[in-house]
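Write out this protein's structure.
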Amino acid sequence: MTIQKQVGFWIAALVVFALGLWLLRDVLLPFVAGLALAYLLDPLADRLERLGLGRLGATLLILGLFVLGFVLVLFLLAPLVAGQVGSFVANLPAYAARLQRLALDYGQPIVERLGGPQSLRDVEASVGDLVSQGAGWLTAFLRSLWSGGQALVSIVALLVVTPVVAFYLLIDWDHMVEAVDSWLPRPHQATIRELFVEINAAIAGFIRGQTAVCLILGTFYAIGLSVLGLNFGVLIGLSAGLLSFIPYVGSLTGLLLSVGVAIVQFWPDGLMVAATLGVFVFGQFVEGNILSPKLVGASVGLHPVWLMFALLAFGSLFGFVGLLLAVPLAAAAGVLARFALRRYLASSLYSGAPRSIAGHEPALITDVRAAGDA
């Protein structure tokens, strides 16, 4: 088969795969979540197997402990978080109005100096409309998350079907890997295996490491803000930790929310506002200098901009399923792009030199190297 036919075949396969995802996006969530869970827990199952426990026993033990821990966390945190979400939604308009009033009070001399009293009234009206519209939109969005039967059905399916899917996939994981390996085209088997190893290292290094970072940061932010007595501290801290899966987005979102709430709650006590800011500054220092280098590492190859683009693109196309698939597909695309770049840099398209024939270098290159050695 020629190169053109091979490229055409794989492009067609990719198009069919993407089309299937798009058509089945409404029912794929528990299956993709189960696949992700099995992938995350497979190294632990392999380790238990090496200790003498059978694959079935290791799978039952791991998933049992995982489900038990998830249920305990859900029962402990769900009432607290749900209460804070309701209170936050109810108080959001008042908090926004208070921030608007403080901003206009302290910015009044500057606005009047630049445009006069009429400019101040125009700015106040514009900011008021913007804040009210934004608060209304956010309130409606948060309430819509829990309204409608489809959302409830999706949550139930996620909680019930996902562990079952993960159980069967985790039992047969090694057999599935062997089966996929047996399907690889023989002439390119070594190259494809090398690419799969690199893709697996990128995905595992980011997902497992970044998940640990998110859990640690979320716990730290929630405890730190709660100790300061900040309203909705647990909600803001956990949200900031979970959103830290997207580099810089979680910390920036949590910083803006917490400082805004702190200004409304504590002002004019600037020390408490500074302490709230200090929690996120310290968290960012620990993440950048300790957690990320140790848990994620520098060899993952997922640039923050590329990751944010992948999350937004796949999320808009496939919803929550797209968010689950964004990181693996972005990591795979990055590995393939680097492989293609290495091949390009090693080819005559880049160097402009004629390719070697039968293992012999062109005479021009040999003469130049000989002259350089002389």
